[in-house]
Amino acid sequence: MPDLTAAEYAEAQRKNYSEWVAIVPIFINGALAYNPGFPVSSASVVDGTIDRTLIAKVGTKAAEAVAPTTTTTVTSVTATERA
Description:
- The chain is of the alpha+beta class.
- It has one domain.
- The chain has 3 helices and 5 strands.
- The protein has a 3-stranded antiparallel β-sheet with strand order 4-1-5. It has a two-stranded antiparallel sheet with strand order 2-3.
- The longest helix has 11 residues, at 6-16.
- The mean pLDDT is 85.
């Protein structure tokens, strides 16, 4: 993948997570990966990591039925460097 600016990376992520939502809890390797109503990575759908019976297309009645009532957006992350 070519080097991307932060804006280009953000747009690529927005596109990747704007097509599908989970309709049931989805576990990957035993860990909860997606709650119902949360966006699912299109790349994980295409490569078969996520079964299509567990997701719905954004904008469909199935997707709207599991839409979360509140949304939390992370706008920044602070990291501590080790000496």
